[in-house]
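Sample 1 of the test manifest.
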Amino acid sequence: EVQLVQSGAELKKPGESLKISCKGSGYSFTSYWIGWVRQVPGKGLEWMGMIYPGDSETRYSPSFQGQVTISADKSISTAHLQWSSLKASDTAMYYCARLSGPLDFWGQGTLVTVSS
Amino acid sequence: EIVLTQSPDTLSLSPGERATLSCRASQSVGSSYFGWYQQKPGQAPRLLIYSASSRATGIPDRFSGSGSGTDFTLTINRLEPEDFAVYYCQHYGSSYTFGQGTKLEIK
């Protein structure tokens, strides 16, 4: 069974750094791209970018380029999304998903709250 | 960048009725690279339709997708109570974009 399990909710202060994770199981983790999607509370889905764990090739949406870093550790079948300096506007639910063309399997989401 | 515009923003229908949701792309997209997702409150999105008209695994046949070029449609026949949710269209492949969503609510 394909599963993507994300790390737990985070409460951070503006300016702090953060790295959240997405662990894949039940399939060949290095053979599928993993994407990240942001959802601000009450709003729609926004595409952030993706990574191919096989060779760590990464592509970012122009809206998120330079704002976040996507990485992967294929030895532990885990993808990461990180921020070096959080802003209040980063408050959102973040989903990872497996790409087989469309996003066919999704993680449960990680809620990131940034507040002073 | 391709922009996807969904209509209507909100659709109010009763169980048993048919829902027709639309998604228009700002430029022609290959139908092999177009999908629909359902999102219920407090849940992650779920893939319904890929390649414009193929149902994902486990999706009931009351859900169907159609369209090509710039105009795509998701049809839900005989609405069930569990179908009331937010639906998103998506272009994928060379670039990834979501529509703004259509909320299907109970009338």
